[in-house]
């Protein structure tokens, strides 16, 4: 009579864990990291979210900021970055983190102050709904520093939200600023959005070791 030997079969990985960058055990979520990018076509610019390491055709935006003696901020950038339509139902929930690389250029002894507003939205068949909005801290660069890079990190708690097939996740980012110096031509504010993390012209990341990736950490409910 032949001996019976135990047979050990490998346990397949749960499909719920297959496509996440990491999992959050406490929240019961799997997190996907999306990068904001910009593509240019004959019809204009398209702002998108991707998990791929690709180079934006337009990797950044910068503009002069208005002078204010009373601390009045002006919106300088407002764009919506859209993911591809989901090809299967998903549930988004938990704490998202949006990491936003910015930079300022100071004129003489002036300071360019700035903050960001982040809104996470769902586009369902053309109907847009807001899931959560949060405002960052206000950044004041150090005095006597002409060029300063700063990375905003904005946490947002997303309520449990069902996305059906074809729905689109959107991250809207607006950047606000003003300068304390009336030389507005040389007082500038910039934001980067390059998935490949190439160092861009205006964010000065090559000199200060900052990233040029606009990173969105989006949590999805795990089905375990």
Number of strands: 12
List the total number of helices: 1
The count of domains is 1
What's the CATH topology name? Answer: Jelly Rolls
Please estimate the helix content: under 10%
Shape: elongated
Second rung of CATH, namely the architecture: Sandwich
How much of the sequence is in beta strands?
A: over 45%
Give the CA-CA distance, first to last residue.
Answer: 42 Å
Q: In the CATH hierarchy, what is the class?
A: Mainly Beta
The chain-level structural class is mainly beta
Poorly predicted residue ranges = 5-18
Q: Quaternary state, please?
A: single chain
Query: Taking all residues together, what is the mean pLDDT?
Result: 86
Major sheet summary line: 8 strands, antiparallel
- Cα-based radius of gyration, to the nearest Å: 21 Å
Order of helices and strands: EEEEEEEEEEEHE
How would you explain this protein's 3D organization?
By secondary structure, the protein is an all-beta fold. It has a single domain, classed as Sandwich (Jelly Rolls), CATH 2.60.120. It is built from one helix and twelve strands, in the order βββββββββββαβ. Strands 1, 2, 3, 4, 6, 9, 11 and 12 form an eight-stranded antiparallel sheet that branches. A four-stranded antiparallel sheet has the order 5-10-7-8, with no helix packed on it. The radius of gyration is 21 Å and the shape is elongated.
Question: What are the key terms here?
Answer:
mainly beta; elongated; Jelly Rolls; eight-stranded antiparallel β-sheet; 224 residues; single chain; four-stranded antiparallel β-sheet
